[in-house]
Design a protein that fits this description.
Elements (H helix, E strand, L loop, with lengths): L11 E3 L6 H19 L5 H21 L4 E8 L2 E10 L2 H6 L8 E8 L8 H15 L4 E6 L2 H11 L4 E8 L2 E9 L2
Helix pairs in contact: 1-2
Amino acid sequence: MILGEIKLIDIKIRRPIHEDKAKLHEFFKLVITDTFKKEGIEEKIADLEEEIETKKKYLQLDLDSNGTLRYFLIAEHNEDIIGTIEYGKSSDLISKCTNGELKHLVEVGTIFVSPPYQNQGIGSLLLNSIYEVMETKGIKEFCLDSGYSISQKIWTKKFGVPDYFIENYWGEGMHHMIWRINII
């Protein structure tokens, strides 16, 4: 547990290794379960489990391809994993919701911060770190989506009005939003 705010200088950003796999699986379960509770959708067990499994598959793609199919970064504090971010091929959901308009872009996703560490700048630190990686690989544009209302507020504040707004996609009052973002 943390006491007070942490200093971003104390956060280590690095690539995952095979030995991180079990800890990352637990991290995904923790953060996704917490998110579903905060969103008031914790009863959607099948969706929660599917979300966790998708993140595990993305991690495995990264580990198996050495970052060419999916590229993860993790944030650590005192050797504890406290955040993740990744990019890779845009999802079928993004392609479907945009009529294929963004299928050529990479998608930034799996932007998770452990509940006790949220709202301390770790998500922004991870985002800036992945920007640097993408720039070195010649990626100038990406997309990002969210069906979580809490995350949508953060992304709207950071990136403005979404480029795609799919009303009631997840149910009454539960929208899906997609942003197209230029890095440069």
